[in-house]
Amino acid sequence: MKREEKDLFIEVSLSLPLTKHLHYRIPEQLMSSVEVGKRVLVPLGKRRVTGYVVDIVSTSDIPEIRDIIDVLDEEPLFTPHHLTFYRWISDYYFFPLGEVIKTALPSSINIESRQVIALTEKGRNTLSKTDYSLTGTDILKILNTKQSMAYTTLHKSYKGKGLYAMLMQLERKGLITRELKQNRSAARVKKEQWIRMSEKGDAVIQSFELFNALKKKAPRQAALLSFLKTEGENSLAGLQKEFGSCHHILGGLKTKGFITSELREVYRDPFLQEEEPKREKTPRPNAEQQAIIEKIKEGVGSGKYSPFLLHGVTGSGKTEVYLKSIEEVLKLGREALVLVPEISLTPQLVSRFRARFGDAIVLLHSRLSPGERYDGWRRIQKGMVKLAIGTRSAIYAPFLRLGIIIVDEEHDASYKQEEKLRYHARDLALVRAQIDGAAVVLGSATPSLESYYNAQGGKLTLLTLTERVEGKPLPAIEVVDMKAERSKTEKKVRELSNRMKEALKERSTRNQQSLLFLNRRGFAPCIICW
Hints:
- With about 525 residues, this protein is an alpha/beta fold.
- The chain is built from 19 helices and 18 strands.
């Protein structure tokens, strides 16, 4: 398209393995809709693909620039502030920016395109000529069974080779059509109908004569109207629980002008089927805990990047330190993010947090339904909640005023993402805290070597809890030297030492139970040659 001086261009990152951004022109009718952070549908060769707007520029050195096709979002999905974080990830891990953004956003909102192939009228006529011999007749026969067929479905049904080249040949002859269609996203905004009584309906309730007349003619309408007067506006689902199927009742009341209705956005709640935990009494921190809480509070209050390594023995009350620190962050009007390594650890931690902060918490992990995760992400984006708990992907939560990031069990290998974009959520927590000017607390009873080394070198402030809560003793630990075990016996000692065997027998004779842990799952911890 011919360039004009008033043209504006956008820089688009595609969710494809491309290291460079592409420039597109903004047509006049879409000028007001384009913003950084929105998705756009753009042409790429003969395809139409989804991209993310990462910049708007007034000049471009590309001579021929194509127009964008459409803007896919009403509101931006990310801000320039979040884009700074995404760019850092892209540069550090050598991964395309568009793919980073796709990873950061809920997967359920992605719009995928699929190639749909259909037989033309000329193709049907050709197929009806039994004496007509044509390369690709098998394909035409398959397509003739349905009005249209996705390329992947056709590929499974067609047993020959060179399908793509064959389709291009049939298309050139006008026997088939190929079209790219957009699939709907997996998660959509959920809306619910709400009913309220109108002024006219209220006047009927207030009038003894009018209400009696309504009761005689339509008793169920009168009952529902009376319910709305007493209980106030109600959702359609709530009214159906009370009155059963009531669409015809509501239709009659609406026709008479006694009620009004509107669709409202609602959020899917992962806590809906769970009992609300009892609010716990806030325990009083011991001297060690209080000293550490004060240091973290100081870091949070400074509004600057403040990294801490919390090294506390098992049962020393690290979770209480987290809770107290988050309380301070919320008082300052900022937001908190808690990362846990495994989904299995989420319920027990969430119950503690719900007991302290109520249900104003968002969960972000893969066991949620696409709708629940999408709604949680949107609630964070809209500033409706200030606390999120999740696994490694929660590091991308769209908070704008992060005050603290807590990485529980920071040594755990589960924080590493091993597919596609390979990142370590603990390291990204430190980077994001720097960008957001937030405190970050890495907590563990057995810190990773790199974190402990960084604490020794001054990159992290080391905080130590040496005692268990209420002075409870640590379990007795006995280290058995397996070399010494082998020298005592002629038999080869394999997995279990003699000391452990004796202890297991002792427990068994007392009718007690024993629990053995393996340090690795799925493969041998070591290889020994005899």
